[in-house]
Amino acid sequence: MIAFVSGRVAAVTLSSAVVEVGGVGLEFQCTPATLASVSPKVGTDQRATLAASLVVREDSLTLFGFADEDEKACFELLQTASGVGPKVAQAMVAVLAPDDLRHAISAGDVKTLTRVPGIGPKGAQRIILELKDKIGAPLATRAAAAVPSAGEPWREQVRQGLQGLGWNLKDADKAVDAVADQAGDSPDVATLLRAALRTLSKA
Question: Which of 14, 28, 51, 92 is deepest in the core (most CB within 10 A)?
Fold first, then answer.
């Protein structure tokens, strides 16, 4: 799996960028915003780094490039929804920033999602239904919510650990609350994570 690529930008077209790596030019399908960020580096010695996602089909291998890992993560998650392929997912991250996508899906905002070409009301409703519990809260909201609980960093560590193991945000939050009384004055994150997993396995 290719996580990212860093190299000289050899060319930019209306929809793609070619990055030279070890004498090989790799072509990435990119959003207009990403292309705009790498265009000034074409033909220079400046290096560009793109987060990469490889889409494998029976008859093709296509690389998609992104300005950062957050945009890439949204692109890949969107494709887990029924009827959303790489082209539609790319259109979504092109029209809506990652936090705008998270907010629209979490809030059930059909109108915002239908701003994306190729997504109608029914498609937007399906995406909301399938991804609402997976998309997570906007990063700005998470940062604001973390301020009051700055004295309990273990909560976020356990929550992230659970999400990394595949649990959605809603279930992770419930499990964190369920083990809060075990934290004490010197919480052990590993112990609390195991306790949270036991809580989830019983649910």
Answer: 92
